Amino acid sequence: MTFGDVSGWSISEAIDCGYIIVGSSDSSTNDNDDIYLLKTDSDGKKEWDKIFGTNYDECGYLIQATKDRGYFIAGRMYEFLLNDAWLIKTNSSGYMEWNKMYDAFDPPWNGEFVSETTDGGFIMVGDTLPTSEKGDIVLTKTDSKGNEEWVKIFSVSGDAGGNSIKITNDGGYVILGSTDMGGHFDDILLIKTDERGNVEWTKTLGSILVDDRGISVQQTTDGGYVVVGFTGNYGNFDVYLAKTSSNGDLDWYRTFGGSENDWGYSVQECDDGGYIVLGQTKSYGSGEGDIYLIKTDSNGIMEWNQTIGGPLQDEGHKILKTSDGGYIILGYTESYGLDSGALWLIKLRTM
């Protein structure tokens, strides 16, 4: 299923087993992008959509269902020196209930930078706006209306940024970020905190003399963590998949890719204990870039891989396990739909 002239960056399953998607759309009144919210049924057919925008450029990076059956959107407003995080709460029909702007964050690599907390509030991670060459990770907790309750700033020896945050089984948080540790190459950074944002441990993952970027983190059934991203340098990247213990110690890591660039963007643990990885490949497939789907066993050993796409640019942004045991892929395609590109929704059967 494709939807033209819009892009999608985050997807969540709705209470009725349909899907709620957020991204961006070209404004009908000016040349700027607006936040785009799309609701579909279980077959991917549009039920309704909503636009949220100002006179600036905006994009929605995260959508989650809330306990009151509404939705919250984490987005961003961009315009020259203006660079604000934007949190929007809607009801079940997509109508805005409230919104808040936060100006303490740099843009994340990925939209998974807000989660709803057990008390109905929200936790956000991002980067401090650096006054020097060094940035720090900032963690902000709000109440159910988006009002700030507390802020924590985490500083490491080099430039650091927060890309993703998840609530852990013990009620704390795991932050996925990156740091150059004062050098020239980036490493993946994992920070585990308690429910008040106090650091319990900090770990780095990565190889020497290459850039390693973590895009998404998930807690696994054994209490550990699985991280997906990409690794490499000088314009040659491979998909990076790593598994850690509950204390953040590396259990194993794997790389996947060919002679050109390949990136990992999203990962889910499967019922058999293995993992399904979604990304984009320029090494394989039939076009300028294709969706790259990799299935591994519990030790990260590849069982199979598949490319999805046509002759032009196609990419996968998110993969989500659905209530029927299958998976839904949110991506982008220039091969199908409109010539200008389209949001792409793909449903997969149980694996």
Can you characterise this structure?
The protein has 351 residues and is mainly beta. It has one domain (2-348): Neuraminidase (6 Propeller), CATH 2.120.10. Helix content is 0%, strand content 58%. It contains no helices and 28 strands. The strands form 7 sheets. The chain has a 4-stranded antiparallel sheet with strand order 1-28-27-26, with no helix packed on it. Strands 2-3-4-5 form a 4-stranded antiparallel sheet, with no helix packed on it. It has a 4-stranded antiparallel sheet with strand order 6-7-8-9, with no helix packed on it. A hairpin with a 5-residue loop joins strand 18 (211-219) and strand 19 (225-233). The chain is globular.
Chart the SSEs and their pairings:
Layout: E1 2-4, E2 6-13, E3 19-26, E4 33-40, E5 46-52, E6 57-65, E7 71-79, E8 82-90, E9 96-102, E10 114-116, E11 122-127, E12 137-142, E13 148-154, E14 160-167, E15 173-179, E16 187-193, E17 199-205, E18 211-219, E19 225-233, E20 236-244, E21 250-256, E22 262-269, E23 275-281, E24 290-296, E25 302-308, E26 314-321, E27 327-333, E28 342-348
Antiparallel strand pairs: 1-28, 2-3, 3-4, 4-5, 6-7, 7-8, 8-9, 10-11, 11-12, 12-13, 14-15, 15-16, 16-17, 18-19, 19-20, 20-21, 22-23, 23-24, 24-25, 26-27, 27-28
